[in-house]
Amino acid sequence: MSDIRRVGVVGAGLMGSGIAEVCARAGLDVLVNEINGDALDAGRQRIARSLDRAVRSGKLSEADRDAALGRMSFTTDLGEFADRDLVVEAVIEHEQTKLDVFTTLDKVVGREDAILASNTSSIPIMKLAMATRRPQQVIGLHFFNPVPVLKLVELIPSLLSGADTQARSEAFVTGVLGKTVVRSQDRAGFVVNALLIPYLLSAIRMLESGFASAEDIDNGMVLGCNHPMGPLRLADLIGLDTTKAVADSMYEEFKEPLYSAPPLLLRMVDAGLLGRKSGRGFYDYSG
Ligand code: 3HC
User: Fold this and answer.
1) pLDDT digits (tens, 9 = 90+) for 173-207
2) Where are the domains of the chain?
3) Going by CATH, does the domain composed of 193-278 fall within 1.10.1040.10?
C-alpha cells in the first residue's frame, strides 16, 4: 500500500510529461509545473497527444483518458506544491537549475514526510539532497523514455536517504505505477546510463570518423542485435543536449575518455540539432 496520493512534477519536457501521464493514469492527483505558460502548454499538449495515442492503440478507453486528464492540473507557480506527498523533479539536466528547484521545494512543500525525488540521469542525488534541510527525504527516481512504455525506474538512495523514504518510494513505483525497480548507488550515470552512454558515444565517434553511415550503424544494431532502435536514432530520441549533459556529468565524475562527448555531438548541440524534439538530429524528423 502506498500513502502517496498527490504528486507534483516539476518540468513538463519529454520526461516530466511522461511521468505526469503515468501518475495520472495510475489514479493520482498530479500537479505539473513549468517555468512559463508556453512551456506549460507544450507539456499539456504532449501529454494529451500521448494519451490519444494510447486510446488509438486500444490501451486506454476514452473515458479513462478523460479521467486521467481530469486528475491533472498545471501551474507556473511552485508555491502551489505545498500539499504534495511526492514531488518528482524532471527539469533540464543542469546542476544549478536542479539545485534551485530543490531549494525552492524545500521551502514550499509543507507535508513533513513528503518525498522529494529527482529524475536526474547523472547528477549526484547527494548534491540535490544537500540543497534541502531534509536530505533523508530526497531520493533519485530515474524513469526511461518513453515513460508510458518503458517499465524501468532506477531507485537511487543517497548516503543520507532514510529507510522509510526508500521503502515508500519503492512501494509507490512498483505498487502504484506498476513499474520495476533496480537500485543503484549514487554514482553519475547509475546503472543504465553507465552502460548506455559509452555505447551511444561510440556510435557517434564511428559516424564522425567515417567508419560507417548512420543508417548502417543503426541497422547493424537493430538487425544484428535485435535492439528496438539503433544508437543514433536512440540518441535522437533521448535528445542530443541531454545525451551530452549526461556524458559530461559522467566524465566529470570518472574522468574516463569513454564518457567524453565527441566533437560532432558538441557541434550538433551548438547548432540546435537536438534530435527528434527539434526536428533534426542524426535524422530529419521535420516531415
Ligand atoms: N509515448 C507513448 N507511447 C509510445 C511512444 C511515446 N513517445 N512511442 C511509442 N509508444 C508506444 C506505441 O503506442 C506502441 O504501443 P502499442 O504497441 O500498444 O501500439 C509501442 O510504444 C510501440 O511503438 P511503435 O510501434 O510506434 O514503435 P516501435 O515499436 O518502434 O517502438 C519505442 C518505439 C517504444 C520508442 C522503441 O523503439 C523503444 O523502446 N526504443 C528504445 C527506447 C529506449 O532505449 N529508451 C531509453 C532511453 S535512455 C533514457 O531514457 C534515460 C535517460 O536518462 C537518458
Assistant:
1) 999 999 999 999 999 999 999 999 999 999 999 99
2) 6-183, 193-278
3) yes
